[in-house]
């Protein structure tokens, strides 16, 4: 019988707390991620169990004979103990001898559930985005975090913005948000006043199991965007420096960008000052264009603020949300200008966009026409 050499390497550990219990209550479940190496191959595994001590859990998972499971290739395999209602394929675990003698001897078969870890990162295949230039993720340097999953990076000595698939508090929905943003970046390539992509960043699948398997397509780890050096409109408003810029053009530029969305039955759904940046010439550029990445409560139309899933609303309601937020944005800009006749028109347009009665609200096209007529 062939003997295969194998080893395990512990990685991340996590606990699920019961927030209705007391401060010192035990976690309701504990999870330990490890990598199982055998004959040059590797498998990512997450062991989840109910209310076991961390040290006990780590000793226990080293005793599992993973050759007999077997783990799922090219992903993270979750092994669930102590929860018969959990989804997954039921299998019987076999344990190797405990050299330390600290774990109890089991006289009955130990059964568990086996499934792909729903919290593991789902990296899209690069084949999904054939129109994008592929950039090796390892060629990026000097990463500086701007926000969760967003970084300034350098590629060939030029600065860009990198938005990654993996991020803190990742959920599988985040991959769909990423896909939607990349699709919109492709759709609006070359359109003025909308953020532009440089390419997608790619790597070998981080969960790749078999070194000999060269047939796996590269996976997408992120999207590389142009970096706009003028900062965000939020920064300019906070520092009360609107008057230092050519601010009159912003209203028309932002409105034109939103109109391009609405002409194609797409919406932004998170129009706010931090999602407007300025390029080197002071022009306004709309960013964060997935259309489903999340909302900001105070920048939502009143009739949408209590909706559980605003991004799932019909197009007409989502469009009204963009229109109202656009009006609020113009109102914020106007609030910092006092000695220019144009500002009165800007306020009137903002009020028309923010009418409480949707039937009385003006459209973005009407707003642009009024602004251009002055």
TrEMBL record:
Which species expresses this protein natively?
A: Aspergillus brasiliensis (strain CBS 101740 / IMI 381727 / IBT 21946)
InterPro entries documented for this protein = Kinase-like_dom_sf, Prot_kinase_dom, Ser/Thr_Kinases-Pseudokinases
Residue ranges annotated for the Protein kinase domain, each copy included: 137-374
Keywords, comma-separated and alphabetical: ATP-binding, Kinase, Nucleotide-binding, Transferase
In the UniProt record, does the keyword Transcription occur? no
- Protein's name according to its UniProt entry: Protein kinase domain-containing protein
Tell me the domain of life. Answer: Eukaryota
GO MF, one annotated term: ATP binding
A Pfam family for this UniProt protein? Pkinase
